Known about the structure:
Pnp Oxidase, Chain A; two-stranded antiparallel ribbon; alpha+beta; 8-stranded antiparallel sheet; 6 helices; 35% strand; globular
Amino acid sequence: MKNYICISLLASLMLVATSALGQEEQGFKKINVTEDFSENGFQWFRDAQLLCAGNREKSNAMTIGWGGIGTLWGRTALTVYVAEKRYTKEFMDREQYFTVMSFDVSQSRVLTYMGRNSGRDGDKAEALGLHVAYTANGTPYYTEATMVIECKTMYAAPFDPQHFKSDVPERMYGNFPAGIHSMYIGEVVGAWVRGE
C-alpha cells in the first residue's frame, strides 16, 4: 500500500512538473503579473481578449471586450463577464479555472471568428487550426496566444437588475438577446508571455 501511494504521488508530481514545463516548451515564459504586466488596464479589455474555460475533454472560448484587472481580498484579481446565453458560460460555471489570452494583431481573425461563432455549432479552435494546450491545473489555452493568464474563480454571480444604479445597464439589456451577464472574479494563479 505504501509503495502504491508513493508511486501515485510521484506520478502526480511528474504530471504537474511536465504540465508546468509545457508552457515553456510551447514558447512561453512565466511572468509575475504584479511586476511584469505592462498593459494599460483601462484599455486592455477594449482591445479584445479571448476567454477560455473547460478541461482536457472539452472546452470553449469566446472573445471578450469587458473586464477588469486589480486586487481583491488580498489577491491579484481579474474579472470577466459572460452573458447568460453564451456557450462558454456553461464551462465557466462548471470549471474552477479559466484563461484569458491575448493575440497578436496579425491573429485578429481568431478574435473575430471566436466572437461571431458559437461553440455549440462546432469546435472553433479546430476550425481556426489553433493548438490546445493545458496548464498544470488542466486549464486549456491556445499555443498561438501571445499572453496567457490563468485564474481560479473566487466569485461568480449574475447581475441583479434591482441593483442597477444608473440607466446604463438598463439601456444595455433593453435589447440584448444574449441575456444578462454574470461576473466572474478570478485570482490570478499563473501568467505567461510568448518568449522572444
